[in-house]
Amino acid sequence: MESGFPAAVFTLLGELPKETWCGSDLYNLEGFWYASSLLPAIMAARSNFRANDCDVFLTSSMKTGTTWLKAIIPTIMNPVGRTNDDGHDPLLKHHPNELMPSLEAQLFKENPNPDLSDMSCPRLFRTHVPYHMLPETVKNSACKIVYITRDPKDTFVSLWHFFNSLITAEGNDPWPMNEAFESFCRGVHVFGPFHDHVLGYWKESIKRPEKILFLRYEDMKKDPKEQLRKLACFLGKPLEKEEEVDRVLWRCSLERLKHLEVNQRGVDPWLGFDYKFYFRRGSVGDWKNNITDEMKEKLNRVTATKFEASGLGFGH
Ligand code: A3P
């Protein structure tokens, strides 16, 4: 196979523990599960990416509200986002994925050494890799890391809906929710285990709060203005006027984004996913409409055990 990736990467794939998940193979590297289509890029980014102090990294496990922040962070950082010039809002023409490129799904996907020299400061990136897999310069430079997480029950439900929508849109059978649930509780899912992912960033954010801002989807929904102000200050771009806060929140709202043509009709060119699947209900507690009491209790037990003594919790 012709590729710029070292052959050793593909040899390694054959040696890693493997599980089938939602019809695809996942490989376990250093305790976390990755899709084979992304693992070479993840390894290349880890070795070859060089962070600048001005960079901003959005990090998350999947389906925790990342798309909301993929819209908010560029809006805060981009001077146009802060003016009342709605006509030039980049979100009108671009899905949030395009405003914060992914290391593994975009920049390093086809090329282990992409030329990023034409990106100007502040560079905005995102990744789903766990903390320990971040490139060393991301951890050690002065760049900022924003982490977003969410109640594991809502995360699971969102994950199931997302992948189930993708596979049924391609004419495949639905993904049995029980099967997906058991895998999630075992930590077998793309970029899982969820709880270990959260803990890695949580612990680091306690040690270095000036470096990593740890956000929860539930707090964003409950008090979006306060969370937005906190985020803007962390990024060194405080929002002073109430109207600026309102404008950013409106531009990045689920209601607005999900009805924009680009998001209704567009397709992610790197992943092949319809953009519309990134926007669903966006509510807190949607698990109540989707999983049984027994499933709730099981996942709560996993969460309590994993987060014990960490100071982290999501309520019940
Ligand atoms: P639901 O599936 O519960 O509706 P991610 O962006 O990490 O893939 O997470 C997807 C979840 O975030 C989905 O949750 C989606 O509806 C929600 N979401 C997407 N854009 C949002 C926005 N602008 N505001 C709030 N929630 C949003």
TrEMBL record:
It comes from the Eukaryota. The keyword Transferase applies. Gene3D superfamilies: P-loop containing nucleotide triphosphate hydrolases (3.40.50.300). It holds the Pfam family Sulfotransfer_1. Residues 55-310 form the Sulfotransferase domain. The keyword Transferase applies. InterPro entries: P-loop_NTPase, Sulfotransferase_dom. Its EC number is 2.8.2.-. Keywords: Transferase. Belongs to the sulfotransferase 1 family. This is Sulfotransferase. It comes from Hibiscus sabdariffa.
